[in-house]
Amino acid sequence: MAIPKDITAYHRAQRPEDRRICEALARAIERGLPDAECKVWHRHPVWFLDGNPIVGYSKLKDSVRLLFWSGQSFDEPNLAPEGSFKAAEARFTSADQVPMRDLARWLKKAARIQWDYKNIVKRKGRLERLK
Known about the structure:
Layout: H1 5-12, H2 16-32, E1 37-41, E2 44-49, E3 52-59, E4 64-68, E5 80-81, E6 88-92, H3 100-112
Antiparallel strand pairs: 1-2, 2-3, 3-4, 4-6, 5-6
Helix pairs in contact: 2-3
């Protein structure tokens, strides 16, 4: 599947090294989650399964952050907890830092292990495990 225009526009807006990181992440995510829908959501590229956010990335001041919404449940030492829910992240400052083998494994876990972020507002901030 081709990367949507809004995501390619996001990539083009980045500095060259950050663009390489974003493009490498997008290609790997597309391979790892071929059935996912992707779009720019809250100003950042995000991939969804059945309307539930799974993985995305964003440019921070000093790095590009890869975020898995359910990543704390993956039991992966190279993903750091992020926020007060179940998200976990990895940060990169160059494309050669992206651990492609780890990323492929994380994406498989992302498809299997999901918390229901799609309905978090309806449930008043309470998450339920989907898979």
